[in-house]
Amino acid sequence: MLEEGVKSREQYGRDGTRRRVKVKKNLLMWDETLFRDPDVFEIDYVPEQFNFRETQMRELAFQIKPGLRGGRPLNTICRGLPGTGKTTSVKKLFTEIEETTKKLIPIHINCQIDNTKFAIFSQIYRKLSGHLPPASGTSFKQVFDAIARILAKEEQVLLVALDDANYLLYENEINKVLYTLLRSHEAYPGTRVGVIVIVSDMDVDMGKEVDARVSSVFRPTEIYFPPYTIDESRTIIGERVMQGLYPGCLSQAMFDLVVEQTQKSGDLRVGVDLLKRATLNAEKRASRVIEREDICSAYTISRYLHLSYSVKTLRTEEKALLAALAAHAGSGGEMNAGEVYKSVKEGSTLGYTRFYEIVKKFDAMRLVNLEYREGKGRTRVISLRYDPVKILEYLS
């Protein structure tokens, strides 16, 4: 009887005799995996166990509570760095609402993807009706009228979470969206809408960014989501490991390395992505354990998680400009905004005003740093936050 993890094979001795020897089974077979549950490491996974955000979720629940009684939910801003649990907190509460009542309709909008007024209200219409409005020949007013009719007929209250709402600010859409949502009762009496604004850009003060027409009806309560401490990150990542990986494939030393790299990045999502990629690296080597080389190799990719997601949200002209900036930075020298514009406008219809708007958006998205330097007038200097080669790689 062989011990667990050991297999036998035939081997020839020096004298030519054949004998059976025990061989450690270190290699992962083609039909085996280290993942107990791979979904645990997906970026949109909502864990059943959700620790260290009890205070924020209680505050959010208080803001939402009037909507459960048929009133208008209180408006809220959820503010914090990326990977601090804002989206997960909202999604968990929305799931509870959907399991409890049909009178309060919670809708989560990803503003990195849907960042125009029409796109956002199309998603609201889809949630209420079960399908998107026709792709062409439909005006915004028709979509809005249909939403209001459904809410009135079903006597429902609407709660809209605008996730990464700072992207609406970059596109100059935030006032249009909030004004339409929060003043909908003026055009459609009896309509009740509450808004949760989720902001990951700590340089944005959404309360000050909105105009007076919106500010008078917005009046949000701000809920702050602080970065996770190293002990909190250790607990959260440990729970993912227990749920998602089979025992014994990640040693304590390698687990500590994952936690260390996660804290270095300042984003818990990087740690989760790092675990997934490191495990895949180990499987690629047909190894039953995750080694340092698997983690270090994975980190070279996971550290660019923010860059990867940001690039996907850019429009064609924005991608072209970012590529031009990366090419310009790769050639060396300081990037003066005026000089850069002269080099990129050749063969392009991009005006300076639009050029500068996009550069400011890149700055707000943490893709570049935009600094002002006093000299002959006020010079704007652009520097990339990422390696130009990596930027071009993700753009391609």
Folded structure, characterized:
This protein starts with 5 loop residues before the first strand and ends with a helix. It folds into three domains: 6-45 and 229-303, Helicase, Ruva Protein, domain 3, CATH 1.10.8; 54-224, P-loop containing nucleotide triphosphate hydrolases (Rossmann fold), CATH 3.40.50; 313-395, Orthogonal Bundle (Arc Repressor Mutant, subunit A). The model is unreliable at 1-14 (pLDDT under 50). By secondary structure, it is α/β, with parallel strands linked by helices. It is 50% helix and 15% strand. It has 18 helices and ten strands. The longest helix has 17 residues, at 268-284.
Keywords:
396 residues, alpha/beta, Helicase, Ruva Protein, domain 3, Rossmann fold, Arc Repressor Mutant, subunit A, 5-stranded parallel beta sheet, 3-stranded antiparallel beta sheet, 18 helices, globular
List the helices and strands and how they pair.
Layout: E1 6-12, E2 18-24, H1 54-68, E3 76-79, H2 86-100, E4 104-110, H3 117-129, H4 140-154, E5 157-163, H5 166-170, H6 174-182, H7 184-187, E6 193-199, H8 206-209, H9 212-218, E7 221-224, H10 230-244, H11 252-265, H12 268-284, H13 292-302, H14 305-312, H15 316-330, E8 335-336, H16 337-345, H17 352-364, E9 368-375, E10 377-384, H18 388-395
Parallel strand pairs: 3-6, 3-7, 4-5, 5-6
Antiparallel strand pairs: 1-2, 8-10, 9-10
Helix pairs in contact: 1-2, 3-4, 6-9, 10-11, 10-12, 11-12, 12-13, 15-18
Précis, in short:
With 396 residues, the chain is of the alpha/beta class.
